[in-house]
Amino acid sequence: MNAHREIFLQPGDWYFGGPDLVLRTLLGSCIAVTLWHPQTHMGGMCHFLLPRRFGTSDGRLDGRYGEEAIAALLHALQQQGRRAGDFHCKIFGGGNMLGRYSNKDSMAGDDPCTDVPCRNIRAASTLVRDAGFDLQGVHVGGEGHRNLSFHLHSGEVQLRFVGNGAQIWRKSS
Fold this sequence. Notes:
There is one protein chain. The chain is of the alpha+beta class. The chain has one domain: CATH 3.30.1330.200. Helix content is 17%, strand content 36%. The chain has two helices and ten strands; from the N terminus they run E-E-E-E-E-H-E-H-E-E-E-E. The protein has helices spanning 66-79, 116-131, and strands at residues 5-8, 14-17, 21-27, 31-36, 43-48, 88-93, 134-140, 143-151, 156-164, 167-170. It has a six-stranded mixed β-sheet with strand order 2-5-4-6-7-10, covered by helices on one side. The protein has a four-stranded mixed β-sheet with strand order 1-3-8-9, with no helix packed on it. A hairpin with a 4-residue loop joins strand 8 and strand 9 (156-164). Helix 1 packs parallel to helix 2 (116-131). It starts with a strand and ends with a strand. The mean pLDDT is 91.
């Protein structure tokens, strides 16, 4: 059995690499987006805090913001000569950590969305769609936190959700 190198992503981190990696993170209201290429077993993950930056930038991508975290992952896969549509994508997180759980559908764009978890979930959904990734599943919202382990050799995401009320969706084969 091959040894796998583990990398723990803090808020604002992103990483892209090969099959010898296990990427881990812990999420509350933040979002993790995982990307996996089934033929090459390459992929990546980002852990962002907010949908977008509301100030000036020095020109460098900042993984704390969803727009920039996804842009960084797109740049990494393009450097490998890959297209976004070839990657399986999953979205996790957006948990309400303040105990004021709302049962609205955070993925739908028709309700007002004022809290950080809801805005993060909607931003992730839009960014993934606009980038052209093949969205395979989501586990978002609810109350509580998520502990993720993403195994690039298989594309498997092990999820431990301590909470309730999550929205779960998986693509049908």
